[in-house]
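USER: Note each token:
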Amino acid sequence: MSDERGNEAIENCGHDCSSCGEACAARDPKSFLEAPNPKSSVKKIIGVVSGKGGVGKSLVSELLAVELHKKGLKVGILDADVTGPSIPKAFGVTGPVMGSEYGMYPVTSEGGVEIMSVNLLLENETDPVVWRGPVIAGTVKQFWTDVIWQDIDVLLVDMPPGTGDVPLTVFQALPVDGVVIVTSPQDLVSMIVTKAVNMAKLMNVKVLGVVENMSYVTCPDCGRKISVFGESHLEKVAAEEGLEILGRLPIQPEFAHLVDAGRIEEASGPELEGALAAIEAL
């Protein structure tokens, strides 16, 4: 039935994607793009993605924002992880979000990072977001169309894990300039990276490279790097996928402390210099 329906859609195709709801292979991905808020100005959009959860995408997004801001760029974070938003907590920002007849305004952190997250719209930050996929995806789309992102050099999109509704919506609706893939040093790394790479290729989005989080812990006594999760497989996977390794983040208790205290802007991430260079090169 699905093949018959697909063949019928192709036969009846008028080649006008603007009014067509079919997800056919010949469709131009750019036909799904949503216009930003008329008052917005965003130069580059970078997605921070992973094929699975628990690898530290939000931490990498936060550190990238902090380091890019230190370099004099105006940075925003669109928190697309609607059911597990953590960006406002890390930056110590709270709602309510202010708005006008033109749209909503992101909340600005103490250090100057612009943030929009569903947690800034909830009455209590601990209220669960019990929504179905299409509603969540629609909310993320509104964070692009209804929010006024003013004079942003780099807008980082902190994605939820996997390849579901929200990543699909972001890749289709936003003009994403590139993605940074986040992974961890475990045997699952090949699957994690390959899933993310394949989705980016499917959506014609450039992969800037990969960041390995929880790569090692530094012994406080001798300074030796200890591979807590075993030896990394990143070089092999990066070579197979033709990816650049953009950095390796250690397990750093200070990161957790600063996130919990809402003071992530006091952190330093020199290990991400490769990722920063790849973004700046755009």
